[in-house]
Fold:
Amino acid sequence: MAGDIQKIPEDRALVKIVNITKKFSEVTALENVSFDIEKGKITAILGPSGSGKSVLVKLILGLMEPTAGQIIFKGVNIFDLTKEMMYKMRESFSILLQDGALFDSMTVEENIAFPLKIRKLPKQEIKRRIDFYLENVGLAGFHRRYPSELSGGQRRRVALARALATEPEIIILDEPTTGLDPITTESIESLIINIKSQNPDKSFILITHDPFSAFKLSDNIAVLLFGKLIAYGPKNKIILLMEENKIIYDIFKRANIRLIQAV
Structure:
């Protein structure tokens, strides 16, 4: 499959995943995976459950070490960093977890303020960011509400506002529409597209099992299957590979009818 992998020019690669292998005892979760996260783009990591998506995210964040390979962030192998430098590196990332992961005992504004207080931002700056990013996600005036008073879609919007509020270089979107109804899913996907258009220099990593979401939201798609990277490239490249490779075609066939609308 090596011929199917498209390289990003060095000056556009924000994160380089280089020959990553991760084994747990006798189980190989990832095997010799290599691709780049491009600056200012949405990169989808697409694959079914058990394909290695979550393990790869933990490696990118330095939460576990690989059996072999490197994660290069801004030209540095993150596994060569000291503990203090690793913590600092992680501040360049923010993550939207698939269930939102809001604190039930905190209001919306307290949830968004939480990571900002950890970073010891001034109170005025925290208030500015809360107001700005709540408006950004269409929830202006929701400051004093609790998560229990919100719909599922609204909770995802608050979680996205919290991820944006730390103003990271890279936002990881972990299955951002899982468990939502079709109308709410479309609303959240449209919001992500709008947020990206307002932040052209921001980089996103989309973790998903849904081919349609991958095509609708992302610029580049990395396809994982059984811990191996079977394809990587822009959407038009993936469409060509669908015509040439039965494995890739089988992954996308259930969304195939709608893909033309998504590209």
Summary: The mean pLDDT is 88. The chain has ten helices and ten strands. The chain has two domains: 2-92+170-262, 100-167.
